[in-house]
Amino acid sequence: MKNVSVILPAYQVAKYIGAAVESVLNQSYQDFELIIVDDGSPDQTVQICQQFIDPRIKIIRQENRGLAGARNTGIRHAQGKYLALLDGDDLWLPKKLERQIEHLESSPLVGISFTRSAFIDEAGNSLGTYLMPKLKEITPPYLLRENPVSNGSTAVIRKEVFEAIRFKDNLHGTVEDFYFDEYFRQAEDIECWLRILIQTNWQIEGIPEALTLYRVNSRGLSANILKQLEHIEKVIEKTRSYAPELVAQWEGPAKAYQLRYLARTAVRLQAGSMAMKLIHQALAAHWRILLEEPRRTLMTLTAAYLLGFLPLDLYNQMETFALKIVGATQKRRILQDQSS
């Protein structure tokens, strides 16, 4: 039995899946199994995976159930004490599993370990900037506002955490165990982490190193921003069903912070009008976000307006200069946090 089960959903990522698998096989920590869940992918994704000859790799095929459904299938088949999630278009640096297993084994109250992430473009080139979430003291109100786990490729979770939130349902013709809620096609991770924090005593905690490479994939993301907003509202409604007092107190701030996050995503995709609309909605939902996090809110607001009104060439020049400064500042902070 392997100590870690790596769960890799595979759906229409033929362009990236080979590099993702290699980043797992190249880990310094080698006591793992790699469970690739073919979620009914219509392209060559699975054929590429089959080219890897390694006894630790298991490929499971199913009709399309979405990301949550693929992860649930992987969890059901997992034999490891720890479960690591990786999306098919992202990458891990070689020390990722090693550092997070050390983190979990030295922190018995932590159920979910995550890392910071570095942005890469569709070709795998570094963009020089990072996802810099809060690492400790993550509470349900904070998680309603922001997702510190950041993306689907950073988390390593104790299997017993998933066992604690397991529920049964019949969605596909037979009664099965479920962990992620398959009614959510987006924001399923936020919904799951919220249930863990509210319904169990496990903690969520990050380590300062940027050991995940998060690919910025522009395909269809403008439409996905609106879908993500819809699913975040569904997360709030589901959470209200079992934690009404929490949602009553934090619903306004939660929507504002999520809208600001989506506005930043729209800026990154250079969707100026959408970015302005989203940041305006954020301020309307909870104007105090300006007082609580003035720098990030004003930066998002300014970027949205500059993108909306400046010629694109001029905006791109200003953005390149600003991102160099931001990236250098983030890198210094990561190094400082690691040393401390």
Summarize the structure.
By secondary structure, the protein is of the alpha/beta class. It folds into two domains: 4-217, Spore Coat Polysaccharide Biosynthesis Protein SpsA, Chain A; 224-309, no CATH class. It is 50% helix and 19% strand.
Fold and architecture overview:
The protein has two domains: 4-217, Spore Coat Polysaccharide Biosynthesis Protein SpsA, Chain A (Alpha-Beta Complex), CATH 3.90.550.10; 224-309, no CATH class. Helix content is 50%, strand content 19%. The chain contains 13 helices and eleven strands. The chain has helices at residues 17-25, 45-49, 66-77, 96-106, 140-145, 159-165, 188-199, 221-242, 244-268, 272-285, 289-292, 294-309, 312-339, and strands at 4-10, 32-38, 57-61, 82-85, 91-92, 110-120, 126-131, 156-158, 167-169, 176-178, 203-215. The strands form two sheets. Strands 1, 2, 3, 4, 5, 6, 7, 8 and 11 form a nine-stranded mixed sheet that branches. It has a two-stranded antiparallel ribbon with strand order 9-10. The two termini are 35 Å apart. 42% of the residues are buried.
